[in-house]
Amino acid sequence: MRLAIIGDLHYPDELLNNKVLIKEARDAFYEQFMNLFLSIPADYHISVGDMVHAGEFSEFNYIMGKIKDSKHSRRFLHVLGNHDTYTYPKQEILSVTRQQRYSVIEETHAIIILLDTARENRDDWSGTLDDEQLAWLEAQMKRTTDKPLFVFGHHPLYNTTARSTEPMMSLDPSLDIWPILKQWQGVGFYFNGHNHVHSIVRQENWHFIQTASILDIPAARILTVLEDEIRLEMVSLASEQLSKWSSLFTLSIFDYEKYPQAEGEAGDQELIINRLQRDRKQVDQQ
User: Mean of the pLDDT values across residues 119-127?
Assistant: First the structure.
């Protein structure tokens, strides 16, 4: 099984500089990036939220149009981010993206969970989970299986990945979902965006994996599930042309600044989990 994952897209319809050259650079950047991303062979292509910048339907329609028009028949998954819900109610957004608010996908070699951590509040960009979703998530954690679990949400858990202790840069600190995740008996992976910097943190049997915005680092994470290991690698999609286009339009995105050192540390790029060693360790512990 193979998953291709990208961080925050932040596609902006409106730009501070409306010159034709700036708009053309924006559209050329996103068209080429999405073509490169969707060309990666994968069972699913996954966006970890903030697909758009201002939450406008025109923005969603642009990105979804690129996916629909792609020559590559891929399954695309998207979780809601805080920028996605800036302007319209979630149900109206989901009618455009054709996604579910939260869901579980059980495949032969893995289980995928998609969460809705976004608020419908422009002034509070922290994350949350409603009671209904929390109860549903806890029920998922009680599954009995040896399959790895991959959870996708826009916001990180508080005090896990880089910047997750900063104000509104995580799920609400008062919402302690760690006891729920700890109920999972196997190996778990939690993927998020939001904080615009690559970061990988291990906590007990979970790995928390944060991916930077593609405007800062044009790249994708590739997750491969093999019989003997789970491999996460970073694939750069950068080019001189993408950098040129990006430099032309990103300064014209309202309230967007590139994050310095978005690449994170050396250990935030790749991850390899030896499944055979882990299975033997679990048997020894029993």
Answer: 96
